[in-house]
Amino acid sequence: MKASAALVFCLACFACARQSGAGGTDALSAEGPAFAGGIIPDEYACNGGNKFPPLKLGGIPAKAKSLAVIMDDPDSPSGTWLHLAAFNIAVSSAVLETAGAPQGAVYGKNDFGNDRYDGPCPPSGTHRYVFHVCALDCILLLEAGASRRDIESAMKGHILARGTLTAKYTKR
Fold it and tell me: What is the structure's pLDDT at 6?
């Protein structure tokens, strides 16, 4: 039986894509209720409120012990730019609004040098932002400020389900 939960944001699970554990993984559904037409509103970007956007997840396996979310910008001129790496998010969270961080979340270091969510902030034009979400069979034994590499390494072999959500933002 699968549980459903709503969640705020991001950990770009390239580790999800490289998952090589036995038995494969299930699919998580991920929706951005605030992203009308797939567009991220200013309130979730650097020139607005820089708030966490709400993410609604479905299909979380009953055996999941935690969630991880990575958000990145694959269109950054300097290469894929990490905006958020959050792990150890409680699977029991029913709905996470933009008012606060996900329950239990521990933040890794993003490419802005912060241990938090930093919203879309493209230098120009329209960029895609990808939210990679993973349901894990464990709590990761990492400290706040862990690198993306360390987070992805710790996730290997522990991913039960994964999903992605892509939205766009144009800096105004």
Answer: 32
